[in-house]
Amino acid sequence: MPRLHAGPNTTGLPQWNLKDLLRHPDKDLETRSRALDDHVRSLERLRKNLSSTLPARTLLKGLQLRETIAAETSRLTAYAQLWFAQNTQNQRARAFETQVRKHLLPLSNRTLFFDLWWQRVGDRTARRLLGHAGTYRYHLESLRRIKQHTLSEAEEQIINVKNTTGREALDSLYDVITNGLTFQLKSRYGSQPLSREHLTVHFRDPSARVRRQAYDELFRVYSNHSDTLGDIYKALVTDWKNERLDLRGYASPIAVRNLDNDIPDKAVSTLLQTCRDNRDVFQEYFRIKARICGFPKMTRYDLYAPPRIKKGVYPFDQALKLVFDAYQQFSPTLADHARQVFAERHVDAAPSPGKMGGAFCYSVLPSLTPYVLLNYSGDARDVATLAHELGHAVHSMMARKHSVFTFHATLPLAETASVFGEQLLSDALLADAAGARVKQRLLLGQLDDLYATILRQAYFVEFENQAHDLIAQGTTVDGLAQAYVHLLREQFGRTMTISKAFQWEWLAIPHIFRSPFYCYAYSFGNLLVLALFQRYKKEGKPFIPRYLELLSHGGSQSPETMLKPLGIDLCKKSFWQAGFNRIRELVEALEKTVDKTT
């Protein structure tokens, strides 16, 4: 058995500097809270003027105040969350986050009236004022879009108060519990305590025994907390139903996310059904992968098993060069933006005890370079993650001209630049691949990633759809586990044996807890990018300005509006099917490498 290790030496990896947000947290919280209070008072003075005859200039004044308030709120919240993410066991960081919530909640409740008035104003007045809204137009249209699901001001204030000790507290509790978990792997060299990030590296270990041990250890630890984590999930789902369906009147749990994303329900249901209908593409891929890896039949433990080719380890400097070069070859503008994230020390890359797992990009304000969290261990996947998260960052930076309300891409398009960045990296690596074995390894890595970010994510959402119904009917945590493993068996069919231990995998998926139905954005984004990348390969340089223009819109238009110039109809199955057709081509290309390497 190979020696188990906790990853490469991570000394010297960048740590972020949060001083661009706040220089003296406690002092800045007090001074900025007082300034915020002044801005809120200025907004409150406009309340008496709100009527159907409101002059456009008064609306714009109110929107500018709301934007200032939102920007200052974002700055304080970002500092609290990023400090907490650095070490979720840091008591000072947790206390500061609590203080930020305490200061901001009353201010949030005092500004509710402005948005509520706009949602309830008559259509004729709304049309008149929208004509003068300028860059605020889509933000105002988005507020009107949810007006039928908005409650009275007093009720909205109560929900805000409730959420600080309800949903938000449960989200934080989930993070505290799961980020504090440690894992053990035994070998002839002894047993080492590992973080989840270090444990999951072994899901791709060449040894089948190590892969099985790593997965079983993950699920052993999480299942030991299944009662607590399961009850947290049931409480969050019940809260979602009580507020969104019972009080606000949404038609279904997922409809909440769809409306928030400004995506038709039909588009999402078509996407999810197309994913389910094409599961055979990945089943065929796993049959080919089993042949390459020499397995009589794959098990779920072997999902990310590496091919029998020497695995590369990428020092961080090399990873940076690979990613920057791939971006540079496509667009020097995007490459410059990516370099700026590092130049301003907005990256935290080293794994450390208590650090939040995974990776993310946090775009705070249009004028502020985004922050990127990584847990870099030198694996090939970490290089792809670097390209992915920098894609999020450059997307926000391309949309700097928009307001704080609309510079963020809407969720379904939020993965566009990140996944496109991964495609640029993969394409560059494939172009430089020397020999069938290297090409085979790269195709295996790409198809593993496409499975993980398309079909796997779609089935997470299928589980959520079922879980929300089951919890409303009074199911147990065990009932949820049984539903999850049933969907796993549907995904993989007869190509893969599923151990019962995987029934607890859903407990380890943070998005299911924090952001219900978020995960279809990954399926959406990846299939969209496959289509866009094919256009780039066909059209070449003329495609690039249109792609950059798409990024520059941020979240200032609906996804349908932004994609229409590219001839994309989200409600047509043929659009989503085109992405799977490209995946089939990659599977066929992989199969051709088998004969050349055997």
Structure description:
- The chain has helices at 25-44, 56-86, 91-120, 123-130, 137-145, 153-165, 167-179, 196-201, 208-224, 226-247, 253-261, 265-277, 279-293, 316-330, 332-343, 380-398, 416-431, 436-472, 477-492, 510-514, 520-539, 543-552, 559-563, 573-597, and strands spanning 183-187, 190-194, 298-299, 347-348, 360-362, 371-373, 496-497.
- The protein has 598 residues and is mainly alpha-helical.
- A 3-stranded mixed beta sheet has the order 4-6-5, sandwiched between helices. A two-stranded antiparallel ribbon has the order 1-2. The chain has a two-stranded parallel ribbon with strand order 3-7.
- The longest helix is centred in the last third of the chain and has 37 residues, at 436-472.
Please outline the helices and strands.
Layout: H1 25-44, H2 56-86, H3 91-120, H4 123-130, H5 137-145, H6 153-165, H7 167-179, E1 183-187, E2 190-194, H8 196-201, H9 208-224, H10 226-247, H11 253-261, H12 265-277, H13 279-293, E3 298-299, H14 316-330, H15 332-343, E4 347-348, E5 360-362, E6 371-373, H16 380-398, H17 416-431, H18 436-472, H19 477-492, E7 496-497, H20 510-514, H21 520-539, H22 543-552, H23 559-563, H24 573-597
Parallel strand pairs: 3-7, 4-6
Antiparallel strand pairs: 1-2, 5-6
Labels describing this entry:
598 residues, mainly alpha, three-stranded mixed β-sheet, two-stranded antiparallel sheet, globular, disordered N terminus
Concise structural overview:
The protein has about 600 residues and is mainly alpha-helical.
